[in-house]
Amino acid sequence: MDYKAIAQQTAQEVLGYSQDTSGWKVVKISKKVTVSTKTSRKFQGNLYRVEGIIPEPTAKLSDFLHHPGNRISWDKSLKVHNMIHRIDSDTFLCHTITQSFAMGSISPRDFVDLVNIKHYEGNICIISAQSVDFPGYPPSSNYIRGYNHPCGFVCSPLSENPEYSKLVTFVQTEMRGKLSQTIIEKTMPSNLVSFILNAKDGIKAQKTSRRGFHPNTLSSFQKKK
């Protein structure tokens, strides 16, 4: 499987989604986060667009979002998020297991996604992802294997304040199993709003922990010891 070629194609598709301004229907606005949707061209479901403003410069925001080691510390929708294979410095495979949601009516799913980080003019960063087959992580009987059609994050500087970023997230997830599309459509917008709010909280917590760390603390402790 040519993972690099798939990654390039996925990045282009996500870029195309970000430039597509027609046909979106707003389905939820909450706490300055807007969720819009249109029919997916990839499967019998929806493509979701989620927009919010994050108080972080674009470079730091993109690092925060794509770092697998940090993800479960702030993303409450996940219980596992591990990098399982690195292809190059900007392309890798991740294995993800979600939490159950919709009061347990949607059981955990697992995904194997090809993730790519690509930078564009104007300090725009796209972190794209698409589910792929990977021999090291075949489907198991423990979880229903879901499938993410081209999705990802588009991070760009806020024109009026470059210390803030506009984050646009695209999601088109095929849950599989025996779920009705109605349940998914009812629960997805609220979950997507929560994702943006959780990211904001995670960035705030990270800043707080950085402010609380002083390089001289360890040396002072060692002297006392």
What does this structure look like?
By secondary structure, the protein is an alpha+beta fold. The protein has a single domain (3-206), classed as Alpha-D-Glucose-1,6-Bisphosphate, Chain A, domain 4 (2-Layer Sandwich). It has five helices and twelve strands. Strands 1, 2, 3, 4, 5, 6, 7, 8, 10 and 11 form a ten-stranded mixed sheet that branches. Strands 9-12 form a two-stranded antiparallel sheet. It is globular and about 50 Å long.
Question: What does the secondary structure layout of this molecule look like, with pairings?
Answer:
Layout: H1 3-19, E1 25-30, E2 33-39, E3 46-54, H2 58-66, H3 68-74, E4 78-88, E5 91-98, E6 109-120, E7 124-131, E8 144-145, E9 147-148, E10 151-158, E11 161-171, E12 173-174, H4 181-211, H5 216-224
For this entry, give a set of tags.
225 residues; Alpha-D-Glucose-1,6-Bisphosphate, Chain A, domain 4; 10-stranded mixed sheet; two-stranded antiparallel sheet; 5 helices; globular; lipid transport; lipid-binding; START_lipid-bd_dom; lipid binding; START-like_dom_sf
The beta-strand count equals 12
| CATH class term | Alpha Beta
Helix-residue proportion: 25-40%
Look at the helices and sheets and give the structural class.
alpha+beta
Shape: globular
Annotation field: number of helices: 5
- Uncertain residue ranges: 213-225
Name of the CATH superfamily: START domain
Query: What would CATH call the architecture?
Result: 2-Layer Sandwich
State the distance separating the first and last CA atoms: 56 Å
Radius of gyration: 18 Å
Mean pLDDT: 90
Tally of domains: 1
Please give the largest β-sheet: 10 strands, mixed
**CATH fold type:** Alpha-D-Glucose-1,6-Bisphosphate, Chain A, domain 4
Strand content: 35-45%
SSE order in H/E notation?
Answer: HEEEHHEEEEEEEEEHH
Organism: Microcebus murinus (Gray mouse lemur)
GO molecular function: lipid binding
Protein name: StAR related lipid transfer domain containing 6
Function: May be involved in the intracellular transport of sterols or other lipids. May bind cholesterol or other sterols.
